[in-house]
């Protein structure tokens, strides 16, 4: 290395080091490991915290304070039905966590089996699950914990690489399903194209009880009015005779209060009847007061969408800022690429191989926690 | 039959028929199939329905609206710890249903096994569970659904017949546990004696991973100040080297709002660590806002006990009335016996063999739904 280059590098190093030192002095404490709304976003839902007050009956006259109603209040079932593009009788509204509903759904499949299958999934020791990567570590963890071998599928700008998916599921009956975050996917932010949705719904599968875990967590989490439309997986599955294939999930965790929201699942009537048969043993029913609270807070789907625009007003400028700074600071060096999503909660930053751990380590020392380097990849 | 006897019977029959006809005219609609609090009892907790308002932080400064805290708020853990006679680090506070926590606990044992065992319970095809009867049908249903053979144990005034229990568990390693409602047992209302609690904690079991499902649902549901004291199963289990044996459950379902309350489990630190390992996969955490709501509403264990006295004021006169009417109407005929509990939610009425179904049918026609005749007995 000649002296000029060496001096040039040293000069940059000194500049960046000094900048990093100035970050350290800021004494930051930011946790960006998860899609965690900011307190000012939570403030948007503060009215929820004193509901329902004395107004604890549904419009139909049900006293939500007492026992009963296994699958959720009719009003909140209708709201999620509109959100997910199904009929209200295809919906179960549960407790505070869609992740828990996903875990339960797969645990039930392992213990008891599902419609279309001839035995519990536990009886297949080599059961496998497809994991579009980079993806959501908590999804992967559920299937790993329940004894599935995880198979990586490349994710593209239009969703999982469908050639890979179709070839695998056509030939291997031990592949029981696939994880999907079809809109503003965690973490790349991609939206599944209509073509991808159709192919997922229509593809032949060797497993007769194949399931798509359709985690539509960010269905209404757009930054702009002009946002991508997700095709309706339920309709396509029905049209292709695979109506039991897709199980949709959603929650208000990133609409109202994370952890104190309402979660739902939607599927074919046969899937819903099967789930309810087990839910009737698993408990008495969900927290209907919290469901009513949410129903009163949103009013209807239009109210929910108005509320989400308030979130967008807060979130979009932050995403724009991150994108601008990444551009200003990194684009000239050709060492990083990142996504620019139109909604959701994540920006995925790829850096030169081997560098991610160092970036995360330096951020952490400066008080900014980032998601672990290998988290979006199974077994990493 | 001579004419006098025949005439006497006809006279009684006419009297009772006419009385029954008068009941029909009342046009009643009462559901007594479950321990369901009355609306006036629910009114005792109406303040809960507008909490926490703007006061959404814990005294320690945790914003309960956001993600985090897998095992419940420290304050509510301490409250349940006092209720169940354990340390706060032996408690997990979950969602709205203790029944769901019980199901989850057993489903996890089936899928993954528990401390002390060498394999998942699913790997024992002949797994069995002891069911003191008459007992709670929802308990029995959980273990039946999860593939256990249910073994009836007679219940006495002091709890399950311990001679039966000890003999069975000593000899059969496929017996994995026993259901217990140790205080104001559903449905007989009995309280386990100190002797029973000690024997359950100390008895040798062939299964190294035997579990007592200790559903202390009515721990504070006394009718009188002078009420039976339940011995501490956790202490006895620890003293006899069986600290992993008992798993306690409780909830506020019959303290505040059924379905919108808070549930908890308590066990050895090893059991709790094992449960948390799985809960970390099952979801993000419980509804902390509802936990805070309850904490603010009760204040502390003394506040909870004051609240329960208000329930007793409403419930005790109803139990007294039922007992008085049963005495007045039935004691002379020698065809029925019934329990007179000191707390809880149930009176168990035994009638001449074969008559129960007829009683329930006639009640139903008069608009009073009673629990099905065989419900407290497995396989009936």
List strands and helices in order, with pairings.
The structure is a homodimer of 380-residue chains.
Chain A: H1 3-25, E1 30-32, H2 39-43, H3 74-84, E2 91-93, H4 98-112, E3 128-133, H5 137-145, E4 149-156, E5 159-160, H6 162-171, E6 175-180, H7 194-202, E7 211-215, H8 233-239, E8 246-251, E9 263-266, H9 269-282, H10 288-298, H11 301-330, E10 336-338, E11 349-351, H12 356-365, E12 368-370
Parallel strand pairs in A: 1-12, 3-4, 3-6, 6-7, 7-8
Antiparallel strand pairs in A: 2-9, 4-5, 8-9, 10-11
Helix pairs in contact in A: 4-5, 7-8
Describe the protein in words:
The structure is a homodimer of 380-residue chains. The longest helix of chain A is centred in the last third of the chain and has 30 residues, at 301-330. Chain A has a single domain (11-380), classed as Aspartate Aminotransferase, domain 2. Chain A is α/β, with parallel strands linked by helices. In chain A, the strands form three sheets. An eight-stranded mixed sheet of chain A has the order 2-9-8-7-6-3-4-5, sandwiched between helices. A two-stranded parallel sheet of chain A has the order 1-12. Chain A contains twelve helices and twelve strands. Chain A has helices spanning 3-25, 39-43, 74-84, 98-112, 137-145, 162-171, 194-202, 233-239, 269-282, 288-298, 301-330, 356-365; strands at residues 30-32, 91-93, 128-133, 149-156, 159-160, 175-180, 211-215, 246-251, 263-266, 336-338, 349-351, 368-370. The model of chain A has no long low-confidence stretch (mean pLDDT 96). In chain A, 41% of the residues lie in helices and 14% in strands. Chains A and B meet through helix 4, helix 5, helix 9 and helix 10 of A and helix 4, helix 5, helix 9 and helix 10 of B.
């Amino acid at each position: 290395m000649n002296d000029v280059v060496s001096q040039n590098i040293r000069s940059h190093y000194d500049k960046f080091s000094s900048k990093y030192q100035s970050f350290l002095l800021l004494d930051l404490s930011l946790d960006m490991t998860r899609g965690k709304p900011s307190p000012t976003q939570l403030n948007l839902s503060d009215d929820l915290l004193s509901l329902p007050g004395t107004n604890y009956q549904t419009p139909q006259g049900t006293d939500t304070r007492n026992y009963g109603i296994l699958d959720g209040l009719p009003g909140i079932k209708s709201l999620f039905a509109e959100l997910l593009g199904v009929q209200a009788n295809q919906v179960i509204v549960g407790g505070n966590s869609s992740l828990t509903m996903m875990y339960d759904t797969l645990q039930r499949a392992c213990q008891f089996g599902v419609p279309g299958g001839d035995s519990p999934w536990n009886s297949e020791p080599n059961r496998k699950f497809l994991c579009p990567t980079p993806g959501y570590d908590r999804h992967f963890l559920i299937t790993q914990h329940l004894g599935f071998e995880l198979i990586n599928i490349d994710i593209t700008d239009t969703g999982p690489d469908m050639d890979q998916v179709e070839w695998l599921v056509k030939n291997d009956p031990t592949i029981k399903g696939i994880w999907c975050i079809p809109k503003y996917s965690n973490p790349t932010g991609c939206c599944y194209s209509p073509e991808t949705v159709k192919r997922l719904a229509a593809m032949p599968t060797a497993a007769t009880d194949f399931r798509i875990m359709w985690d539509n967590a960010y269905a209404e989490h757009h930054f702009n009015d002009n946002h991508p439309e997700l095709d309706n997986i339920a309709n396509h599955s029905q049209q292709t005779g695979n109506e039991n294939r897709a199980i949709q999930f959603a929650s208000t965790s990133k609409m109202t209060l994370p952890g104190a929201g309402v979660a739902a699942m939607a599927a074919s009537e046969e899937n819903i009847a099967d789930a309810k048969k087990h839910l009737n043993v698993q408990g008495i029913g969900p927290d209907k007061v919290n469901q009513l609270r949410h129903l009163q807070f949103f009013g209807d789907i239009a109210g929910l969408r108005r509320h989400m625009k308030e979130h967008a007003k807060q979130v979009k400028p932050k995403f724009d800022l991150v994108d601008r700074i990444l551009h200003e600071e990194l684009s000239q060096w050709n060492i990083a690429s990142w996504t620019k999503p139109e909604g959701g909660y994540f920006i995925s930053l790829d850096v030169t191989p081997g560098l991610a751990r160092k970036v995360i380590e330096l951020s952490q020392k400066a008080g900014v926690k980032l998601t672990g380097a290998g988290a979006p990849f199974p077994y990493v």
